[in-house]
Prior knowledge:
CATH class: Alpha Beta
Number of domains: 1
Number of helices: 2
Radius of gyration: 23 Å
Amino acid sequence: xxLDLRFLPEIPDGMRIWYADEEVAGISYRIKYARExxxxxxxxxxxxxxxxxxxxxxxxxxxxxxxGWFFTRSVHIGYVTAEIAKAIVKSGSFDELQPxxxxxxWGGYVRDFIVVRFDILQPKPAREVATPKPKxxxxxxxxx
Length: 144
């Protein structure tokens, strides 16, 4: 049995897509929690920095947040890929970012195979205030 859940919430005002269609890394090591997340209701994800991670100080954890029978739960389902986590940390804009869940694909030939895809949204840059250009004068037409 394959399960294909698609999400695409609107992009909030003032935000734009920075990284599109990213896949949660390391999900195969947390398959039990990823399955639990996929079965829940009101699914969303959250990004959490792990600056004290012994493998890589740039690590960004992906938490799956879902509504269970009685409570909202949160489970660690994987990580943002290393190259993107490094770019995010280097930019210094982690606190301004928002993840947007795109889809969850579960099943196929391998029973415990789950893919979670998401976008990373960032604030749009402030628009530069344009100075008005002087209007050109039209030459006067003379009657001849």
